[in-house]
Design brief:
mainly alpha, single chain, about 220 residues, about 70% helix
């Protein structure tokens, strides 16, 4: 059963618009980062590595991996929301569409600003999606679920998951580079800025593991990644 976590809030139309705009822009940003060819964020590194070994598109792998991660929610007793299911489907579809529309670039002078724009867009998409408050993405739900079951700080859990994912993706041939480092350093501050910018009026901005620093009981996050 799909449930919406937390109390229902007002402005449902705005929240739905933010949810699907954020998811769409997130998928676009993932595709642009891949086209920049300067390194990806950890989960995309893994998905790209799997894609290269299976022959499936990276968008398809993103959808399948998201669905498989949801199975891990069962023992963690996590409950998906509308945003969770939408995350699994939309990101991969939009990512593949972006790759189909945006050609490969040879010039480093074009790829560097493309990377910068993709990371900035990803931060804005994160703020839109999280502020909608329609449930965590599958990967962040795994992180917060492990935090609650193990009692370990969310920062530690997040780091362990992403280091493991990054190492596995790199071993499979995923792209690790300066873009990976830029993303890791920039996404926290960007997400925090855009969370405040896109907060639904009258609703408090919830803390997110995107910018978490080991809080004892963080709210669910919706970063897909």
């Amino acid at each position: 059963m799909i449930s919406e976590p937390g109390p229902r809030r007002g402005l449902p139309v705005r929240r739905l618009v933010q949810l699907y705009t954020g998811l769409t822009l997130y998928g676009v940003s993932m595709g642009l980062m891949l086209r920049a060819e300067l390194g990806l964020e950890p989960w995309s590194v893994l998905n790209q590595g799997i894609s290269r070994h299976t022959g499936l598109s990276i968008g398809t792998v993103t959808i399948v991996s998201g669905a498989l991660i949801l199975l891990l929610w069962i023992p963690l007793r996590q409950r998906p929301g509308l945003g969770t299911v939408s995350n699994v489907v939309i990101l991969g579809l939009v990512m593949d569409a972006t790759l189909a529309w945006v050609p490969e670039l040879d010039s480093l002078g074009a790829r560097i600003p493309l990377l910068a724009g993709a990371v900035l867009l990803n931060g804005a998409a994160t703020g839109l999606y999280i502020s909608a408050d329609y449930g965590p993405g599958p990967r962040d739900g795994l992180m917060t679920g492990l935090h609650r079951r193990t009692g370990r700080p969310v920062r530690l859990v997040r780091t362990c998951i992403e280091v493991t994912v990054l190492a596995a993706g790199f071993a499979l041939g995923g792209s690790v580079g300066v873009g990976t480092v830029v993303y890791a350093l920039a996404i926290g501050p960007l997400a925090q800025f855009f969370l405040r910018r896109f907060a639904v009026p009258g609703a408090p901005v919830k803390p997110s593991p995107v910018v978490a620093r080991g809080e004892a009981s963080p709210e669910p996050a919706i970063l897909p990644e």
